[in-house]
């Protein structure tokens, strides 16, 4: 196995957790060894390496290979104004997501068998030299990000800058960029971003969750006996929840560490969140108009989320209310 993440990242730890589950649950009939980005193939080339049988497996993310699967890859990972981890899991396991994920690879004739294997909660919205109070603040802002979110910020007037994560700290320190987004509170604290004197913003409306897929070659899957197929599938299911708990707990500690340091937190005004949601959905509708499969997945998710959220808004107590009056 190889992940596209350095060994210091929680997502790499999640890959280790999955490898351990596969080894233990199969009593050694599956021998999985996880490796960090670049150990065997160049980082972000893992999916292609599995197709070409250079790698046996990878735990990666579909938005890393949209050049091969299309922009629909974003809908199976993180995207602005998208589902949260539990919403995504219910859609994946019960709402048709499993079949659509497989179809994403099949329609491109990529011999891949994907399984949802890990998830993280919302990222921080970003770190800004000055607080964001309106959509107008994005105009001319040198913002480090990438992908479809970068396109949306460009539409909002930002000057989007793309750079590796390792260059962010110095670039913000030197004023090369005015703002950036990176990851969740725990990861951002570990990266030392709190030392920059920037304002931490939330909520992460641009990335309400991140989903990660376990990929093996379709030939490998087809040759596996039924019990090992079941072990692999259930190991991924177990890893989804245990890795989510691992990252969420780390983020809880990270948030407290940021607070103890004296980080200044800014809650995005509702008008800004609504503005981002509007830009996002206009972009998705535009993509869907020219991409039938993107439109199919988007329709499935939207219809599910409308029904699911209506149920939850009625049945699920508001935790903020309970916390305020405990």
Can you give a write-up of this model?
The protein is an alpha/beta fold and 326 residues long. It has a domain at 10-121 and 208-252: Bacterial extracellular solute-binding protein, family 7 (D-Maltodextrin-Binding Protein, domain 2). Helix content is 49%, strand content 13%. The protein is built from 13 helices and nine strands. The chain has helices at residues 10-25, 46-51, 66-69, 85-94, 97-106, 147-155, 168-173, 185-190, 218-223, 226-261, 270-290, 292-315, 319-324; strands at residues 57-60, 112-121, 126-128, 142-144, 159-161, 179-180, 199-202, 209-217, 265-267. The strands form two sheets. Strands 5-4-6-3-7-9 form a six-stranded mixed β-sheet, with helices on one face. It has a three-stranded antiparallel β-sheet with strand order 1-8-2, sandwiched between helices. Helix 6 (147-155) links the parallel strand 4 and strand 5 (159-161). The longest helix has 36 residues, at 226-261. It is globular, with a radius of gyration of 20 Å. The model has no long low-confidence stretch (mean pLDDT 96).
């Amino acid at each position: 196995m190889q992940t596209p993440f350095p060994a210091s990242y929680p997502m790499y730890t999640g890959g280790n957790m999955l490898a351990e589950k596969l080894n233990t649950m199969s009593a050694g009939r599956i021998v999985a060894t996880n490796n960090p980005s670049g150990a065997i193939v160049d980082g972000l080339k893992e999916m292609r390496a599995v197709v070409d049988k250079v790698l046996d497996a990878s735990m990666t993310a579909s938005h890393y290979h949209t050049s091969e699967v299309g922009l629909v890859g974003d809908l199976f990972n993180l995207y602005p104004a998208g589902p949260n981890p539990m919403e995504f899991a219910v859609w994946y396991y019960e709402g048709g997501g499993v079949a659509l994920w497989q179809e994403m690879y099949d329609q491109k004739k990529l011999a891949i068998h994907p399984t949802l294997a890990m998830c993280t909660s919302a990222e921080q919205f970003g770190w800004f030299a000055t607080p964001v109070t309106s959509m107008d603040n994005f105009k001319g802002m040198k913002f480090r990000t990438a992908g479809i979110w970068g396109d949306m910020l460009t539409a909002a007037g930002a000057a989007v800058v793309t750079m590796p994560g390792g260059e962010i700290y110095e670039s913000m320190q030197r004023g090369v960029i005015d703002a950036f987004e990176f990851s969740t509170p725990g990861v951002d604290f570990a990266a030392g971003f709190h030392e920059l004197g920037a304002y931490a913003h939330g909520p992460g409306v641009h990335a309400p969750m991140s989903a990660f897929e376990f990929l093996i070659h379709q030939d490998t899957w087809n040759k596996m006996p039924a019990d090992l197929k079941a072990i692999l599938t259930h190991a991924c299911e177990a890893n989804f929840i245990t890795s989510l708990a691992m990252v969420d707990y780390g983020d809880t500690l990270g948030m407290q560490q940021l607070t103890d340091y004296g980080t200044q937190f800014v809650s995005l005004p509702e008008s800004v969140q609504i503005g981002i949601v509007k830009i996002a959905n206009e972009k998705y509708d535009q993509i869907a108009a020219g991409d039938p499969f993107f439109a199919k997945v988007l329709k499935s998710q939207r219809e599910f989320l409308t029904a699911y959220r209506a149920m939850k808004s009625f049945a699920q107590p508001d935790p903020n209310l309970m916390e305020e009056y405990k």
